[in-house]
Amino acid sequence: MTILLYALLFLVSVAVTLGGCALFTNAIEWLGKRRGISEGAVGSIFAAIGTTLPETSIPVIAIFFGKSQQEAEVGLGAILGAPFMLSTLVLPILALLLVLYARAGKRTARFHLNYGEVKTDLTFFTIGYSVALGCVFVPSRLVHILAAIGLICMYGYYMKIKFGATDEEDGEGGALEPLLFAKSASTPSYVMISLQGLAGLAGLILGAHLFVTAAETMAEALSISPLILALLVAPLATELPEMSNSFLWLYRKKDRLAVGNVTGAMVFQGTFPVSVGLLGTEWALAPSALVTMVLAVAAAGFCLLQIILGGHWRPWLLSASAILYVGYTLYLYGF
């Protein structure tokens, strides 16, 4: 009964986290519109940050407020699992869906993207995450602190580039959904936007607390490493916002938003949450965690190489990165 109770608590934590994420994302999109920020920047920065807050809030709570080593492992799993999931599972699924939508006659079997933007995103992620990977082999507190500061500055520079972009594709985002706290208002007030944003943040924090508690207890009851549980279960649950948004945008032929939401989230995950781990832990990773970093860099590098050599993505080739995710899952099963 205890396991069932905490399994239910885990499901509740996922529901609360995703609900808070939906509120926060909707609010910041309206904030971007009210402030006159381009839809491209809102999608790749604001929406990406909003939908990655679940993964970010979990390690912050687990690492800085947790009282056990198990909670710290859950935090590291949430940090490292998200980039791995996005690069080896979400992007390949987008490629497969593109082919399925094309065969159903809904669209063409070709990504319509600004590949310069995608190349920028993947380059920032590959460099930032490679720096974090290198820090695993340099057990120096000073190096870790400097690397964390550098990664945060790197993301700041990335934001500057995105906000400064003024290409012709900024307006492809389509109509914005009504503010959830003021559905009847054509232009919601800053007060309602702020209230909804704060409510979303509260949901994210509460969901993170519930998840850490449930993950630690279930792992102990089932004799499963909380790190492994967090590497596979946490990202799959918390990446639902990115996946659902991107799948819908792809169906509506808004490829730039669909892919940008994922690659923008990868840049954020490869810099800011990683900095939390570098600052809050010794950054000494178990082999199972280290493998996820290597595979994420390999998958992103493979996607980037396709653009550099061919100028565009081929869906069947992009979907091949899923082999890395399947192989890692089998590795964990054997491990």
Write the layout of secondary structure elements.
Blueprint: H1 2-34, H2 39-65, H3 69-103, H4 115-135, H5 141-164, H6 190-222, H7 226-238, H8 240-251, H9 255-269, H10 272-280, H11 287-310, H12 315-318, H13 322-334
Protein described:
The protein is mostly helical and 335 residues long. It has one domain (2-334): NCX, central ion-binding region (A middle domain of Talin 1), CATH 1.20.1420.30. It has helices at 2-34, 39-65, 69-103, 115-135, 141-164, 190-222, 226-238, 240-251, 255-269, 272-280, 287-310, 315-318, 322-334. The radius of gyration is 19 Å and the shape is globular.
Reported for the largest beta sheet, the result is: none
Mean pLDDT: 81
CATH class type: Mainly Alpha
Radius of gyration: 19 Å
Overall 3D form: globular
Count of helix runs: 13
User: What level of helicity do the residues show?
Assistant: over 70%
Order of helices and strands: HHHHHHHHHHHHH
Give the tally of β-strands.
0
The CATH architecture can be named as Up-down Bundle
Tell me the β content.
under 5%
Distance between the termini: 28 Å
The CATH topology label is A middle domain of Talin 1
The CATH homologous superfamily is named: NCX, central ion-binding region
- What class, by secondary structure content? mainly alpha
Q: Give start-end ranges of low-pLDDT stretches.
A: 169-173
Would you kindly provide a brief summary of this structure?
With 335 residues, the chain is mostly helical.
Notable traits:
335 residues, mainly alpha, single chain, 13 helices, A middle domain of Talin 1
